[in-house]
Amino acid sequence: MSKHIAVLPCDGAGKEVVPEAIKVLRAAGADFEFEEFDVNADAYMRTGVAIPDEVWSQLVKADSILFGAVGDPRVSESDYLAGVLLRMRFELDLYVNLRPAKLYDDRLSPLRREDKRAVDLLVVRENTEGLYVGMGGRFKKGTDQEVAIQEDLNTFIGVTRIIEYAFEVARKEVVMVDKSNAMTYAGGLWQARWKAAVAEHPNVKARHLLVDAAAMQLVKDPTQFDVIVTGNLFGDILSDLTAELIGGMGIAPSANINPRTGRGLFEPVHGTAPDIAGRGIVNPIGAILSASMMVRHLGHTDMAQAIEGAVESAIRAGDCTRDLGGTLSTAECGDAVARRLRD
Ligand code: IPM
Ligand code: MN
Predict the structure, then answer these.
(1) Which of 8, 90, 166, 343 could form a disulfide with 229 if both were Cys (CB 3.0 to 4.6 A apart)?
(2) Which range of residues forms the domain containing residue 202?
């Protein structure tokens, strides 16, 4: 039976890149039924509702969600973001956020040292807890006595399951990243669960780094990394850094998944790119590679590999948008990848 994919392009650049991802999936021969939903800032401003109940019930039923980017300067970022992307991550319990970074062409690396460029790593970001849960408050708001509290929520189960997942997908080594020297309560739990997991996986290499040192090492020599497992905020920050190591925000994909239920939401790491959106120049590769992660998650390994191969070939040939040194428009870049899959 054909899979049912819920499509949420949402805002800005998301509206431009998601159709290219669908174009490529079709060219790859994916037997999917795509259903697009009108979840975006315009609808939110009109109705005051981020995701209407009838749409939510469809999203819950879908085999996967293909997502663009969310955000708009006209709406209160926090309410709208929390009501769309964070709600889906939390309520669908998509606790693993996979953010691979692989250099497809040497010219895209910002590093001067040639021997340090060939990055091929995976950030495994905890996606349902940490500083993102929205607990806390602002007291005496707007006065010079104001106090703002943002709670960092870490649970035994949440920390255990994300570290366990990292060990499951490691090829060479797992590096756990935290800030346990300064944030001793959350860090203490991460350290305890980390040590237990390391003891359970004697055959996998394991190393711990503090997040500041990890940021430094990622720039100094990213080739040393295989799998990095970390909390929600550090994973968010480090995955922008790793995106830049492979050619920039336009190219980096991500998968938000629950490996136990099989649910998944697939989105490029980039946001709505208000500075360049709407001119047909945004890079669709991040969205296309996210679609490739989706088909892999749905069990079509060969198709995922074919899409990745087509992307790599297009990038190497210079058939890409200007952020990667090409001259193509968003749609032409999608065509360049799709053509390679049809031939
Ligand atoms: C990302 C984004 C989101 C995040 C924002 C839009 C809430 O930056 O997916 O990396 O911080 O997780
Ligand atoms: Mn981010």
Answers:
(1) 166
(2) 110-245
Could you give the 3-state DSSP secondary structure of residue 10? strand
- One domain, residues 127 and 148: yes
Could you report the per-residue pLDDT of 318-343, keeping only the tens digit for each? 999 999 999 999 999 999 999 999 97
- Tell me if 190 is assigned to some domain: yes
Ligand nearest to the CA of 70: 1
Assess if residue 102 is contained within a domain: no
- Cβ-based neighbour number of residue 62 at 10 Å: 21
From 79, 85, 242, the mutation candidate for ligand 1 (largest count of ligand atoms within 8 A of CB) is 85
Euclidean distance between the first and the last CA atom of the chain, given in angstroms as a whole number: 26
- Where is the domain boundary, 189, 212, 245? 245
Do 133 and 6 share a domain, yes or no?
A: no
What is the reported pTM?
0.97
44 is catalytic: no
Which DSSP category does 42 fall into?
A: H
